[in-house]
Amino acid sequence: MIEWSGAIVQGVLLGGLYALFAAGLSLIFGVMRLVNIAHGDLIILAAYLGLSTTVMLGVHPFVALLIVMPVMAGIGYVLQRGVLNRTLGPDILPPLLVTFGLSVIIQNALLETYTADPRKLSGGAIDTASLDLGGITVGVLPLVTFGIAVAVIAGLQFVFYRTALGRGFRAVSDNQDIAQLMGLNKAHVFGVAMALALAVVAIAGVLLGMRTSFDPAIGGGRLIFGFEAVIIGGLGNLWGTLAGGVILGVAQTIGAKIDPGFQILAGHIAFLVVLAVRPNGLFPRVAH
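Structure (tokenized):
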């Protein structure tokens, strides 16, 4: 019984990382209805930026975040203003094609720069530290990751519903033309949304790099986990994204407990079951 409880706890904590993968996706879909195929590769880009920062400056990955987050936010703003804003419109195909192309470019650039060798970020003592919770051993890093995920999603929720910037996000999400007439620069608002999303991606990438090894080719898998968490929770619902991540993580760890080769498949099956029962996700965003 304790072993199964341990698997569930590990799954919940893994869900925190998946929620961080998904939070940026959920935010930009909620604001501009943009599906970003390059999202997973941007997570891996952030992990490599974290690696370069820790190696060059000799700092801890958490300190490296102070550099990686603004850099990724800047990339997000420039990318949105310079490229993605030109693709937005009633047709969803142009953004999909452009972000797919961006995904290929990022993968190949990382491969050329860092080679295909797996890398890992060293977090020092936190990598191996653990706590004993009544017979269940829990790693400190997964606990910290889950805490960060909750804090990030709470912060995004606050920004979205309690600030002037959030009102701008909601206004352009509801009706771009009327928002523009009311004096909002939708191109700038979209740029800020993407900057915020990629700041979250920076956190996700560095935490991923501390938790496991990574290479330029694994972005697609992280994108799928992020998509599944978003869709399970409900498109545009940030707390739903956390719930979706947790459901996905628990399904995977229970699957791994049954058979180690069943881990990833179990997550996909849970995703399909939720989709079959609730096509809009468990907590679809209600109109505001």
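The domain at 2-277 is CATH 1.10.3470 (ABC transporter involved in vitamin B12 uptake, BtuC). The radius of gyration is 19 Å.
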